[in-house]
Amino acid sequence: MTATLTAENTAPVPVLRVRDLTIAIGAKKNPKKIVTGISFDLIPGRIQGLAGESGSGKTVSSLAILGLLPANASVGGSIELDGTQIIGMGRRALNDIRGRRIAMIFQDPSSSLHPQIMVGSQLTDHVRRHLGLNATDAKARAVELLTRVRVPNPEEALRRYPHQFSGGQRQRIAIAIALACDPVVLLADEPTTALDVTVQAGILHLLKDLAIERNLAVLLVTHDLGVMSAIADDVAVMRHGAIVEAGLREQIFGAPQHAYTRELLDSLPGAQNAPSAHGLAVAALEDDAR
């Protein structure tokens, strides 16, 4: 499935537009500026990477999209979902969007999944609230989702608790929950950082497949340019709260223009005995293409 096109059938239409986003946190008299005016688009079927070291402002930018910043944060600029302004939106309206129109995958599935609630309840409660499904249909939906994200024995998995799964399987369950209500935007904040390299590759492969299959607009936030180079279509590099370089993946990795981008690329591990997540993910994608 391809991205939605304009009337001229030439350019994809973003489902989410971020313009001149600013974020400051702290007392009003002397707030700390975290993000200083960034802009990017999320386009259906494409993965937009947001890269940068810790403290660059990339994670708080993604949290601002869902209105999940702390109470002492001030946000300026514009975030529009299909033309509707999110900044300044009330809590009830935001709750209707969260999970239903925009979903998020967090870095650590151990903290994003409730440890004392069975996986089935975490999936079915979600779809019953947003989609109005009855218990039978919600369970069928949960089995379908777990099957799609390749969690083994999905019907049995519904009756288990998060601690009974491996880290990679927990992240797949978190992805299933994020997809449960067919969102149009998926925010992925360091989704593979807590996983070993071979498991990372499987998660990256899954995210790429889902973006294409479901025409999802994906924001991939990561400090790892190896991960970014594996699946992002477009890349924006952040430093000190600003985007210093942005473009197609091939441009950013093949001919970086900014000194900071070149520094990040130079810091990537060279040839090693252990395979990289990037190499494994690319190999998996190439296998599927054959």
TrEMBL record:
Membrane topology: Peripheral membrane protein
UniProt-listed Pfam families: ABC_tran
Name by which UniProt lists this protein: ABC transporter ATP-binding protein
Keyword Membrane part of the UniProt annotation: yes
Highest taxon, organism lineage: Bacteria
Transmembrane segments: none
Family label: Belongs to the ABC transporter superfamily.
Single GO molecular function: ATP binding
Transport as UniProt keyword: yes
Lineage summary: Bacteria, Bacillati, Actinomycetota, Actinomycetes, Micrococcales
